[in-house]
Design brief:
This protein is an all-alpha fold. The chain has one domain.
């Protein structure tokens, strides 16, 4: 038995709206499982996958930390997952009250982890706040909904970072001439 063509399939349908099967494509935001999402880099578009990656790495760090606290692992042994979550390469001569850090190879792991974190934040805000908001204001086309989400995230990001910059600038002691007098 041969498959009907698209026009034959549509002509047989009794309803004017035909539900076509959903195809998970290469650029889809649907998860195909964590391993497939890792291999295809889909975790950048799927917040669930990037959240799983964040939690797995944080739990591995916490596991090792807990084992050290209960003396099941020697406390002198360095936690290999610490470089992912925290800044490494502290300058030994810097005081505890004002620690300084230098560049090192483990900075790459720190940056890689936070690429995953901020990808999760970005996609979550876009998909779970701005896409529904676009539908509420009447945006219908999927491309326009995506555009609305991206633009909404950009506005939220720049608003947050601008306010954060103004607050941190006001807290600095060297700022005596610019926005501190506002």
């Amino acid at each position: 038995m041969c498959r009907p063509s698209a026009s034959e399939f549509l002509s047989r349908s009794s309803s004017p709206i035909v539900a076509l099967p959903r195809v998970i494509g290469r650029f889809s935001s649907e998860s195909e499982g964590l391993w497939e999402d890792l291999k295809s880099m889909r975790w950048m578009k799927v917040p669930e996958s990037s959240f799983k990656m964040i939690m797995y790495l944080a739990l591995l760090w916490f596991n090792f930390y807990t084992l050290q606290k209960f003396n099941l692992v020697p406390s002198t042994l360095w936690n290999p997952f610490e470089a992912l979550l925290f800044i490494s390469h502290r300058v030994p001569s810097s005081p505890d009250s004002d620690p300084h850090y230098q560049k090192g190879y483990l900075d790459i792991t720190f940056i890689a982890y936070y690429i995953i974190v901020w990808s999760f934040v970005r996609q979550s805000i876009t998909m779970y706040i701005f896409h529904p908001m676009a539908k509420v204001v009447g945006v219908k086309k999927p491309a326009k909904i995506d555009r609305f989400g991206e633009q909404g995230y950009a506005v939220a990001y720049f608003t947050f970072t601008s306010i954060l910059g103004l607050v941190s600038n006001q807290a600095q002691s060297y700022c005596g001439h610019c926005l501190c007098s506002l």
